[in-house]
From TrEMBL:
<keyword id="KW-0460">Magnesium</keyword>
<dbReference type="InterPro" id="IPR006073">
    <property type="entry name" value="GTP-bd"/>
</dbReference>
<keyword id="KW-0963">Cytoplasm</keyword>
<dbReference type="Pfam" id="PF13167">
    <property type="entry name" value="GTP-bdg_N"/>
</dbReference>
<keyword id="KW-0547">Nucleotide-binding</keyword>
<dbReference type="GO" id="GO:0043022">
    <property type="term" value="F:ribosome binding"/>
</dbReference>
<keyword id="KW-0342">GTP-binding</keyword>
<dbReference type="GO" id="GO:0005525">
    <property type="term" value="F:GTP binding"/>
</dbReference>
<dbReference type="InterPro" id="IPR042108">
    <property type="entry name" value="GTPase_HflX_N_sf"/>
</dbReference>
<comment type="function">
    <text>GTPase that associates with the 50S ribosomal subunit and may have a role during protein synthesis or ribosome biogenesis.</text>
</comment>
<dbReference type="InterPro" id="IPR032305">
    <property type="entry name" value="GTP-bd_M"/>
</dbReference>
<keyword id="KW-0479">Metal-binding</keyword>
<feature type="coiled-coil region">
    <location>
        <begin position="341"/>
        <end position="368"/>
    </location>
</feature>
<dbReference type="GO" id="GO:0003924">
    <property type="term" value="F:GTPase activity"/>
</dbReference>
<dbReference type="Pfam" id="PF16360">
    <property type="entry name" value="GTP-bdg_M"/>
</dbReference>
<dbReference type="InterPro" id="IPR030394">
    <property type="entry name" value="G_HFLX_dom"/>
</dbReference>
<dbReference type="InterPro" id="IPR016496">
    <property type="entry name" value="GTPase_HflX"/>
</dbReference>
Amino acid sequence: MHGNLSGLRPAQLKSLGNLYRRRIEPGRVGSPELARNLAELSNDVRREVSVLIDRRGRVISVSVADAKAAELPEVRQGENRLAGFHLLHAHPRGGALSKGDLSTLFLKRLDAVSAIEVRNEGQPGLVHTAHLTPPGTVGEEEDWRILPPVPAFQIDEFDLGAQVSALEEEIARAASTREAKKDRERALLVQIDQGEFDAEERLEELGELARTAGAEVVYKELIYRRNLKPGTLVGAGKLEELTGRAYHLDADLLIFGQELGPAQAREIEAATGLKVIDRTQLILDIFALHAQGVESRLQVELAQLRYMKPRLLGAGAALSRIGGGGGSAGGGAIGTRGPGETKLELDRRRINDRLAFLEKQLEGVAQRREERRKSRERNDVPVVSIVGYTNAGKSTLLNAFTHAAEEPRRVLAENKLFATLRPTSRQGYLEGIGPVVLTDTVGFIRDLPKDLTRAFRSTLEEIGDADVLLHVVDAAGPGADTRLDAVNRILEELGFVDMPTVVALNKADAADPETLARERERTEGIPVSALRNIGLADLKEALADAIGQVQRQELARQEEVRALAAEWH
Ligand SMILES: Nc1nc2c(ncn2[C@@H]2O[C@H](COP(=O)(O)OP(=O)(O)OP(=O)(O)O)[C@@H](O)[C@H]2O)c(=O)[nH]1
Ligand SMILES: [Mg+2]
């Protein structure tokens, strides 16, 4: 027996215990006799009394509590089933199904919930029953259907068994059509707005990230919260609402726009029954999908493991949560994909070994890269590093600049975030300068996850080798200025301050003229379209000027050194 039993007399406890002996006809809500018992008892103890009945008509649990607090076994019958039992309880003060009753029905996937109104003298009055509606119900329909109330002596007339079978069939049918269509994972997106000016843009960007990771975004919401709840960030009520939405939109993935702590993710997952991933996990997942070549794969795996390590510690549940997916970059569920061979199913001890191994491997790769860099330096060819926000058009611009329109010289450019992870250098030519090396590299994003920055350190450091930076901005998308600032902030964090920079306002063909003019004024950038070959001559001229200036400064410096040396001799 469960619930608040304090102050109950032995006789009352005995009567409650006797409820376990009651059996009803399978597939019915209850029997008139059981309804009478419950009403009497509830009246007697002046509290709600609940019984849980399984599909064979047996009472499996008795609680002196309302529906929300009633003891429910923690069984999940699989995605396509209901819980396999229904809740019957008595309201000592009368009244129909409460909000708590209905949300328990929904969240616990009960077969049904029924409330017996208790009249004076403990007589059972009307019985109110509700059951779930099929998933995918849209429009005005609620998550549940409330049946017309019946008097207690007719409680056994409703065919609950038939209703449950029909509903389960419906749920299974929806699931199998979805399976057959091989749909992409359907995701709900949530961005918490704490008053940031770019909250809207962040939600938009989260959508782009989700799309790139292969999810179908079926719902997005900006949730304003001045103060975050420690456990669930948004609070239990909001999570209930999201659970309902997910059910009707047939989604099972919930993506948060902010990084979730290990305990938070687990708590939100437990409350919603959905797979929960955060923005960092999503970005890591995209990197895992796009990683090609030894170095990028090592880097991505390192970043993933570092992110996961604290999330694996001390939690069996978390381990299965993260380890569930496939190991290949192509397959597997979003948030669980890993690069290369390694499945992300390592235990705590092996993680440390693997981390040490990856770090060592990367050191080796970085060293070889360093040697290559040195030999290039000796060549004295000026280097231009193309930097910018992800999807700004860096790779497209490199292709346009180096006339590398054909395979195999063409570098991959596509409408996906983080298409490029590996720095690629191409030889180009600038009038008045001669041959130059142009290097395309991994794109930036605001709040770049720290684990990624660390893992990609050697790749990012190469940016600093450039004589001139070519900062590519997508001038067509919303918030060009925020993205430009975000890139500058990251460059600063990486220690690249005061590097000679030329700004290219790309996608000018698609940009709104007003925005373009404003950005031009603000950044002294040069409008171009890498895709349509517009403005490239101007851009080349600006680059040549910048390189020329760097070279003149370098000459002057060498001159000074020579003069100093001459003085000393
Ligand atoms: N309209 C328009 N689209 C462009 C232009 N330049 C690039 N794009 C498109 O923008 C998308 C991203 O281009 P990429 O060159 O892959 O961008 P990136 O900066 O290398 O992106 P990441 O490597 O993912 O960081 C592609 O779909 C391009 O076709 C342009 O001048 N105008
Ligand atoms: Mg690229």
